[in-house]
Description:
It contains nine helices and twelve strands. By secondary structure, it is α/β, with parallel strands linked by helices.
Amino acid sequence: xxxxxxxxARKAAEAERAAIDPxxxxxxxxxxxxxxxxxxxxxxxxxxxxxxxxxxxxxxxTSLVFVQSRDGNTGAKDPSTLGGGGADxxxxxxxxxxxxxxxxxxxxxxxxxxxxxxxxxxxxxVSLRASLGLPRHPVQIVATNHGIDLTSGVMFNSPELRVIVxxxxxxxxxxxxxLAARPWISVVTMDQxxxxxxxxxxLRERGVLRLSxxxxxxxxxxxxxxxxxxxxxxxTSPKSAGEPGTPLYSKRLDTREIVRKLGTGAxxxxxxxxxxxxxxxx
Length: 282
């Protein structure tokens, strides 16, 4: 099993040597929101990155971060094949969308065997995160109804990381032995699948004020349906790619466009949008 130090060094090296072409701004209407950034990020993103406030005192501010192909597909074994480009990967996905997040959430299908760490790696963004008074790495959160293998993967076997698993009783029971050997992993156990408002309330009680969600589609739809998402950061590539019939959301989304950025250079044809969703409570 690879060490966390080796994993982190590799990710940081990849971020530093990546060739990144900056975005160009087409629409910017986000001045009523919280703006973050520093010199490098403002140059590469062509301005500040915006965040919505938490919807109330009991819930974290929650965002979704997705890439889709030009035909609207979001499903792919390797998300890089969707064609979001270097700026999306290093400036948005592994960057500004999570630099101010207390935690990053992914479903079990997205996390798979835990051979990922959902953090920021570019040195300028590492410094920005530190300037915001946040720990080096966000809390790693995995949602699973059936349990997930915790015995392998850098995410689950690095005491340097704080990990939370959101599950239901049968999932917690399946992981009981592995959890006992990993005190850095805690569990939020819902009484039934889909009780996400309750789960996010428990996360807020544990200090998660800002949550970035990276998929999958089933979880994203459940969060949207529960009215728990404020910000959608959506990158559309110029490529036809992905598994057919895998849109982010199967119904019409009621959103307001706050920001639109266009890719340049190698990323020409890429479109980034910051869309705000109305928050609804059941």
